[in-house]
Amino acid sequence: MAAAEQRQVRPWPTGAEPRPPSLASRRKIRNGFNLCSPLVLFVLVALLLPAESQQMHGDYGFCDARCGDAELSSTSPTKILIKGGTVVNAHHKEVADVYVQDGLIVSVMHGIKVNEDVTVLDATGKYVMPDSSRVNETGGIDPHTHLGMEFMGTETIDDFFSGQAAALAGGTTMHIDFVIPVNGSLSVGFDAYVNKAKNSVMDYGFHMAITKWDETVSKDMELMVKEKGINSFKFFMAYKGSLMISDELLLQGLKKCKSLGAIAMVHAENGDGVAEGQKKMIDLGIKGPEGHALSRPSVLEGEATARAIRLATFINTPLYVVHVMSIDAMEEIAKARKAEQPSGMSLLPLQGLGSVHCKQPYVAYNGPITSRHLCHFLIFSDIPAISWLSQTFSPFSGFSQTSMPFLGFLRHSRVSLPFIGILEHSRIEGFGKLGIYEVLAFYGGRRVIGEPVVSGLILDDSLLWDPDFTTAAKYVMSPPIRESGHDKALQAALSTGVLQLVGTDHCTFNSTQKAFGVDDFRKIPNGVNGIEERMHLIWDLMVETGQISVTDYVRITSTACAQIFNIYPKKGAILPGSDADIIILNPNSSFEISVGSHHSRSDTNVYDGRKGKGKVEVTISQGRIVWEEGKLKVEPGSGRYVKMPPFSYLFDGIEKADEKYLSSLRASVKRINYAM
Fold this sequence. Notes:
Keywords: Hydrolase, Membrane, Metal-binding, Phosphoprotein, Transmembrane, Transmembrane helix. The protein is an alpha/beta fold.
């Protein structure tokens, strides 16, 4: 238990007020933390270097005795200076040095002087930013993994050691795994996963699955949130007879999540429909891997996604849809997000001190928010937010052309947080200088997050029809990889902000385990790899092709995850006080994925043979260099459990929406009892 409770990553620096555990809580001003850049620090090569083909180094069966590229102790220095680069975050860039000591980013500024005991990385002529070129980033965060998971009569081949080692080699420095209850017990399941993670080598957090409902489960959910650092619970709408829950249970779980400030997550497939589809395929004599995809058509994913969204709307609580694999599911999320309307706004400082919080009825501190509290220059990327602002403050009384010369300067961006602005603090009590702010809109409608995974963005289902069973079976996962066309649609949704962040659903089984279903696709363990490949593949797929910017890449691979699960800016940011989880990625270097060189224990890889641009050359975890020149330096047991506090920004404004709902009921009606 001690390992799991080693530390708590607070959403704000020491001395900040924690969010009270109630929906009526208000986000307070946090002082003393210089938020100068979101997410991961990358060092981008500014000069055009010749593309150098570099195969992902390693040894298949990373943790086997024959593996020779890993040193099982970390002797890397804990003082590192990244010097002279252009530090770029999601909304700002500047030429600066970045100094790391004892696992934390200590300073981001120009001309830092250090002693001889500091390792210096010269970034002159390069960009230092979240994920890009030769980018030095605070590392990617994978929101969706299954390490050491017992499932379908076996256990995933990658445990917390081999899976995390693979992650570090690929530039991911934190992941969030799913705890599966033991016989429905959350506490027993948590203890089991604490034990599984004893050999961990990097930071990790936990989600918790809910597989049954009773008073004990309800009380255990409170324990998980208040004491164990879990702020998200997953409900399986599929896997009938094992993990699947009913709508009644889902409703109870949604209500409990709302009361605790925890995010409800769903695996959205109609489990009854899948069971019927499986029976149909077997009756038709279709027993191979192709039967898996045919039995779970996208309409069943779309139906379950729509149902979950509507039930979450009914309860008025945030919903996170994991592994969105189809156009059907994506369109339901798009409709829900389009229906959302901002009910207030929160300003998180990216540069300068403190934060400002504004909510309906637009109260900042104890005074009303009027046009004087707005900024001289706003850049919006969320059209509903623009509409809300216009309606709320129209006709912008109190502003003159002199004081607000750039009022009409509105710009729509493909991917960004709800909206961004440059604020004049001096117009708000307690602030006296200009600073750059990240602005989060609070939605009074549905708060829906959509998470695609790498396999759904890149692959299609064609290889499920491969005549070689071993080849076909390695692509079996749920929801299934879809036919060509769904991948492109999901990429477009990611690039336009309909979907918000990218996971992997890393859940690996080797060819022997997959062969359990050689005569019946229903017995093939579901799952594919991706924890090592994600950062490379998303860079090549989305940035190299121009679908998203470098700053968008940082957001979808790290910052958004940290914000959603309330560990920002300790994670997902390059700021003084943030954890020193950094990667250096060279955009001009090429990679090639190979089952013979990856660090997973599996003897299969669904991306085997894939080549692309953008290679992670250095990974820094907890302030130590753990991946450099194709070699890992990891220490079993050095991983840290990251507690995730409840009531992330997704919960802001919920109580106001509840009040509005109650006031709209016009009930109960007093009636005359004529019987008297």
